[in-house]
Structure formats: structure tokens, C-alpha cells
Predict the structure.
Amino acid sequence: VPTCPFCGAAETDRFDLEGHRFLVFACMFTPEVDPALSDAEIGSRLQKDFVEGGSKTYFRGMCDRLHYFVTAGAGARALNPAGMPAPDGATEPPRV
Ligand SMILES: [Zn+2]
């Protein structure tokens, strides 16, 4: 069973979505992997792609997406369905 390359948590789930495969680890790390890879190959690929190569890019990208989600996307509509004005002292969410 593959483990999270950052914290060692075990994989708890995996799912395929429109030709893309995602692994879900107990820590909520959910990387996309090539569906053709074996479990053994997945371990080294996660290490290479996310830890050695692009962890900063990966987490920056996730941060940007989450930020968009809560400020302007579906999350914003769920959190503020009535279009309530921002509380005192809050600033306008940045336009993304
Ligand atoms: Zn982890």
C-alpha cells in the first residue's frame, strides 16, 4: 500500500475520475497519479514528483485553488449564500 511521501500516512482510498486517478491518504494528501503505474512505481513517483520536484509548486497550487474556492468559487456561495455584507473590518476578497 502506498504511503504519503510527506508524513507516511497509509493510503485509505483511490478513485478514478474522467481518466484521472487520485490516491487519498489518511492525512488528506490527494495526489493525482498515472493510472498505469503499479503500487511500487507510485511510491517512487510520489517521492520524485511531489517531494523532490514540485512540492512547493504543488502546495502553492493547492493553496491558490483553496483560496479561490473560499473567496470566489462554490465555497464562497456556500459560506455566504445571501450575499451578506462583509463584517466590520473585513476586506473585500481579492478578485481572482
Ligand atoms: Zn501526509
